[in-house]
Design brief:
The chain is an alpha+beta fold. The protein folds into two domains: 21-51 and 99-141; 53-98, Endo-n-acetylneuraminidase fold. The protein is built from five helices and two strands; from the N terminus they run αααββαα. It has helices at 2-19, 22-30, 32-50, 101-132, 134-140; strands at 52-72, 78-98. It has a two-stranded antiparallel ribbon with strand order 1-2. Strand 1 and strand 2 (78-98) form a beta hairpin. The chain starts with a helix and ends with a helix.
């Protein structure tokens, strides 16, 4: 059952994207690179402001818990029993990583230049999507 929930949650962003209006889908699709570069730029600027970066790692561990088992007695009657058992669990740990400020500043300069290049292109795509789907633009006003 938890596997089904995990699959549903993993598919949720795809379902939400499919539910957007044609104009929203058009804009989202055509401005993805601009948004990615903008997010990377924000991350680099945060690293420079803090003086370090954050990274994540998945740590696997075992915990002792209670497992539910179904057993049948000699007459065939089912009975639930709880027994101790080990379960694998994973957690994501966030940790600090030292940065090279000079490298981060070069990265910031490159990302800022790339963002500036993509900004005009993204604006043109937004206008084109609004022109292609005018009924959505009228509904938003």
């Amino acid at each position: 059952m938890t596997r089904n929930i995990a699959l549903t949650l993993a598919a949720l962003p795809l379902l939400l994207a499919a539910c957007g209006t044609p104009q929203e889908r058009c804009i989202s699709k055509n401005t993805r690179e601009y948004r990615n570069v903008s997010n990377l730029l924000r991350e680099v600027e945060g690293n420079l402001a803090r003086g370090y970066a954050w990274e994540e790692r998945v740590v696997y561990d075992e915990i002792l818990t209670q497992c539910r088992d179904l057993v049948r007695d000699r007459e065939g009657n089912a009975r639930v029993i709880y027994t101790p058992c080990w379960r694998d669990v994973s957690t994501t740990q966030r940790y600090r990583v030292a940065i090279d400020p000079a490298a981060e500043q070069r990265k910031r300069a490159n990302l800022a230049a790339r963002q500036k290049e993509l900004a005009g292109q993204a604006e043109a795509y937004v206008r084109a999507c609004q022109a292609a789907y005018p009924e959505e633009q009228k509904a938003a006003q």
